């Protein structure tokens, strides 16, 4: 007996090459860029240009936003990651710093565990709480007794896996303005030489990981105008329930020696190694 996930993978790999070799007709009328950001399928701008509504992009003032979550998109990679702009939380203006807080439950997105860090800047204890008020990360900074000389104003902690939501919480604060944020590790290393410089930013880049819901993918496969060109790409059901406990997800890749968009018909092209 073939297990359902394996059976599904076999169906994808053996999908007949009867679909049109042309680009999907409905995608021909879709805009591929918003400002300077390229929007590859399964994301899309406009009616019926994305694989489902979670991947729908709204272009506002030449800036792309995830329509259902209202997060500004900085760039999208077909390796299953994307960078978004996320608020820096501060105790000086708590209401404003929570303007674009995102809760990713029931979505095909998670905060990347390997490419983000939690950081706290100020003087006190910093906690990052999950949806059930249990701590998922924490760190502590220290000041002298006069709160004038800060000995360790910067602290950081790793991101837990399958992170969908977090809320900052503070204790024993000794300074008026304190900052807590989830931030892309690479951007942090390149741009924040002095931790206090975080006060100059209202938003920072954060990396999300994405995967397509299986139901949406099966609908795409049944629609031959969007079917996968099976000889140059593979699609597999995610081995973990990172993205959703109730809805399995699928991720596609071009096979070795090919590059391009594995979510499009003949989207993977051979690489010239000469």
TrEMBL record:
InterPro entries associated with the record: WAK_GUB
Entry's localization field: Membrane
Topology versus the membrane: Single-pass membrane protein
GO molecular function ontology, one term from the record: polysaccharide binding
Annotated ranges, domain Wall-associated receptor kinase galacturonan-binding: 30-85
The entry's keywords: Membrane, Signal, Transmembrane, Transmembrane helix
Residues of the signal peptide: 1-21
Keyword Plastid belongs to the record: no
GO cellular component, one term: membrane
Pfam families in the record: GUB_WAK_bind
Protein name, UniProt field: Wall-associated receptor kinase galacturonan-binding domain-containing protein
UniProt organism field: Acer yangbiense
Taxonomic path: Eukaryota, Viridiplantae, Streptophyta, Embryophyta, Tracheophyta
């Amino acid at each position: 007996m073939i297990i359902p996930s394996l059976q599904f993978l076999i169906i994808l790999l053996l999908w007949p090459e009867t679909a049109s070799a042309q680009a999907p007709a409905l995608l021909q009328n879709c805009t591929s860029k918003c400002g300077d950001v390229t929007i590859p399928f399964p994301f899309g701008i406009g009616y019926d240009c994305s694989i489902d509504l979670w991947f729908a992009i709204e272009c506002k003032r030449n800036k792309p936003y995830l329509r259902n979550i209202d997060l500004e998109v900085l760039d999208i990679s077909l390796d299953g990651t994307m960078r978004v702009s996320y608020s820096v939380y501060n105790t000086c203006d708590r209401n404003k710093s929570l303007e674009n807080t995102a809760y990713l439950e029931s979505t095909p997105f998670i905060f990347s565990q390997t490419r983000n860090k939690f950081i706290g800047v100020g003087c006190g204890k910093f906690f990052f709480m999950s949806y059930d008020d249990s701590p998922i990360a924490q760190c502590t900074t220290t000041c002298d007794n006069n709160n004038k000389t800060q000995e360790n104003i910067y602290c950081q902690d790793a991101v837990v896996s399958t992170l969908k939501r977090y809320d900052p919480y503070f204790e024993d604060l000794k300074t008026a303005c304190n900052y807590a944020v989830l931030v892309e590790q690479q951007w942090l290393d390149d741009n924040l030489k002095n931790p206090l410089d975080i006060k100059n930013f209202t938003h920072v880049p954060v990396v999300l990981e994405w995967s397509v819901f299986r139901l949406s993918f099966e609908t795409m496969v049944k629609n031959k105008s969007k079917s996968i060109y099976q000889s140059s790409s593979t699609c597999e059901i995610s081995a973990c329930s990172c993205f959703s406990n109730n809805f399995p997800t699928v991720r596609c890749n071009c096979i070795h020696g090919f590059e391009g968009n594995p979510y499009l018909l003949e989207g993977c092209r051979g690489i010239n190694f000469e």
